[in-house]
């Protein structure tokens, strides 16, 4: 992760703004830089992932245009090769292609990106900022206004506290230009369902998900994997291990008493031959971390806090004891394929409606939680289940196929890999216990 900051005004000197920007320096501890532009300031705290030397430092510049981006642009190398016919590049960073793409396509560029990103771009022709966020909202971005009405953008709300009276999440799949928001993508929207049979659907899901994992293995910094022993993270790890053809580094966390999930995680690790670490925590570790986790999340919501403690502590261990900079995780599968909260959907339409709602709200819940817990430990999260091609296809599947017709949640994604033998059978078909929390109750049963 990195931290970006943009103020479309010079009414406040940068020396004052610096303290606000530095609230999120843990997101990018490697190097910091600010650029003054005619209409304001752009700031960047870097966590080096691609193009590790100083040439990969942002803001990037093309003529009088500048950009700062917290993101990963997948499949950027062929694009870079094509753009090199007209543009010169100084680094190996994926984000350096953004300004040439913007020069070529303008605001239509955002529709073309296969990426997880949040960016702020200074357009010299407009003498104004353009800001944008990826369609799911995997990378965070917030905005507010100064007292003079000028826009301010930042990676986290804490950057804007004291500057803006109202702080709002930048809507995913939108760009801001010429004083207004425009939606360029909505991954939850389905224009028509794909009426294919189960075998065809599973074959396509398998192909797309493998591609989504593989493209997220491209990094110049070391990559690790969170492994809970559940279906989603186990699939990510198994595909990565098979793709890389070498032991990957996996990490699980559990309490020092009755840590049942560690048993399943170890079974997966042994099966795929990973270099595995169990992070064992105590009640004291949880209590000691509690206030810090509440502060980094910015919420007192019990469910969110409870779900974050383990992720925060395992990431803290990884940050303090390894050289890993990138983590692949298993988030987003539940929202796409349904699980306990959709097991009781009365019909396919209700299932689809709930799934669309949860995809659109991801940036406020699971994705936000994972971002905060990982980035505060100076790590970057990558989410294969959030791959845009995979999500688009999965959301377009006839929802009657995704309903719990086999007494098995997320049946399609399990069946898609049933013949690969990537995982032990007891893991591939393992059911998860229902969480006794209000958010787990489907809205149609309330």
Question: What can you see in these coordinates?
Answer:
This protein is α+β, with helices and mostly antiparallel strands. The chain has helices at residues 14-21, 76-83, 98-105, 109-112, 198-215, 231-244, 260-272, 283-297, 302-321, 333-337, 348-361, 366-375, 388-396, 399-402, 411-416, 425-428; strands at 3-7, 31-37, 40-46, 60-62, 65-73, 115-123, 128-133, 142-145, 151-154, 167-169, 174-177, 180-183, 223-226, 249-255, 275-281, 326-328, 380-382. It has a six-stranded antiparallel sheet, with no helix packed on it. Helix 7 (260-272) links the parallel strand 14 (249-255) and strand 15 (275-281). The chain is globular and about 60 Å long. Mean pLDDT is 93; it is low at 434-446.
The number of helical elements comes to 16
Oligomeric state of the chains? single chain
Shape: globular
**How many strands, what sense, and barrel or not for the largest sheet?**
6 strands, antiparallel
DSSP strand count: 17
Biggest sheet strand order reads: 2-3-1-9-8-10
Question: On the 0-100 scale, what is the average pLDDT?
Answer: 93
Rg value: 22 Å
Strand content: 15-25%
Low-confidence stretches: 434-446
Percentage of residues assigned to helices: 25-40%
Q: Structural class, please? A: alpha+beta
């Amino acid at each position: 992760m990195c931290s970006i900051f943009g103020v479309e005004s010079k009414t406040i000197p940068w020396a004052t703004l610096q303290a606000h920007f530095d609230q999120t320096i843990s997101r990018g501890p490697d190097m910091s830089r600010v650029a003054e532009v005619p209409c304001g300031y752009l700031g960047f705290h870097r966590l080096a992932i691609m193009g590790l030397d100083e040439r990969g430092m942002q803001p990037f510049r093309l003529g009088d245009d500048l950009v700062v981006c917290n993101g990963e642009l997948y499949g950027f190398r062929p694009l870079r090769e094509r753009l090199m016919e007209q543009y010169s590049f100084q680094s190996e960073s994926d984000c350096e292609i953004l300004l040439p793409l913007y020069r070529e396509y303008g605001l239509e560029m955002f529709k073309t990106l296969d990426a997880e990103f949040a960016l702020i771009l200074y357009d010299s022709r407009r003498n104004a900022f353009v800001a944008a966020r990826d369609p799911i909202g995997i990378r965070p971005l917030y905005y507010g206004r100064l007292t003079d009405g000028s826009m301010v953008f930042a990676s986290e709300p804490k950057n804007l506290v004291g500057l803006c009276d109202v702080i709002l999440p930048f809507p995913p799949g939108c760009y801001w230009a010429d004083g207004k928001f425009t939606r360029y993508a909505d991954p939850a929207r389905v224009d028509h369902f794909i009426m294919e049979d189960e075998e065809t659907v599973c074959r396509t899901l398998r192909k797309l998900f493998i591609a989504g994992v593989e493209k997220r293995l491209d990094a110049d910094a070391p990559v690790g994997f969170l492994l809970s022993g559940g279906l989603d993270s186990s699939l990510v790890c198994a595909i990565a291990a098979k793709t890389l053809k070498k032991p990957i580094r996996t990490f699980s966390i559990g309490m020092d008493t009755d840590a049942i999930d560690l048993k399943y995680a170890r079974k997966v690790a042994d099966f795929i031959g990973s270099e595995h670490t169990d992070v064992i925590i105590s009640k004291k570790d949880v209590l000691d971390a509690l206030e810090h986790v509440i502060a980094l999340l910015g919420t007192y919501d019990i469910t969110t806090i409870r779900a974050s403690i383990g992720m925060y502590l395992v990431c803290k261990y990884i940050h303090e004891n390894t050289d890993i900079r990138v983590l692949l995780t298993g988030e987003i599968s539940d929202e796409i394929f349904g699980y306990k909260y959709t097991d009781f959907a009365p019909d396919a339409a209700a299932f689809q409606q709930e799934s669309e709602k949860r995809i659109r709200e991801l940036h406020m819940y699971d994705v936000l939680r994972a971002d905060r817990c990982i980035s505060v430990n100076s790590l970057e999260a990558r989410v294969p289940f959030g791959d845009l091609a995979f999500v688009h296809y999965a959301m377009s599947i006839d929802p009657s196929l995704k309903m719990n017709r086999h007494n098995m949640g997320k049946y399609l994604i399990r069946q898609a890999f049933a013949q690969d033998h990537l995982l032990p059978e007891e893991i591939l078909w393992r059911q998860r216990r229902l969480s006794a929390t209000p958010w787990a109750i489907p809205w149609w049963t309330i």
